[in-house]
Write a structure and sequence with these properties.
130 residues, mainly beta, seven-stranded mixed beta sheet
Length: 130
């Protein structure tokens, strides 16, 4: 089991920035994927970005490429999501999740698919005003 806790959400104006933090513990090795996902009201949960703790390889959804950056500090068991140039369409609850199965695959379909992650946090609200 990998307890996961998100923080850093809030209200920001369009064009602004936020940095989300994910505190995850209980890793028995570095062979884990940690991802950020989001869910807007009335919409399905979708993958935003994910990272391999082992080699720091990253995957991004097309709609955040060039704006968001995911990073991992393994020594602190922290994963961050730096979000720049936010738009109202980025509004939603952002979740952090971890899993070991995903590392078997080398494609964004698995790394950004919430169905492949078992350990979830409670989420943090991000609201972008226009």
């Amino acid at each position: 089991e990998v307890p996961v806790v998100e923080s850093g959400g809030g209200l920001v104006q369009a064009g602004g920035s936020l940095r989300l933090s994910c505190a995850a513990s209980g890793f028995i090795s570095d062979d884990y994927a940690v991802g950020w996902f989001r869910q807007a009201p009335g919409k399905e949960r979708e993958g935003v970005a994910s990272i391999s703790r082992a080699d720091r390889k990253t995957y991004y959804a097309n709609f955040v490429k060039g704006r968001f950056t995911i990073s991992s500090d393994n020594a602190k068991n922290m994963v961050y999501l730096q979000m720049n140039n936010l738009t109202p369409e980025d509004t939603g609850v952002y979740y952090c999740a971890a899993d070991r199965r995903v590392i078997r695959y080398g494609d964004s379909y698995h790394w950004l698919n919430p169905r492949w992650y078992d350990e979830w946090g409670q989420g943090t609200q991000v609201t972008v005003s226009s």
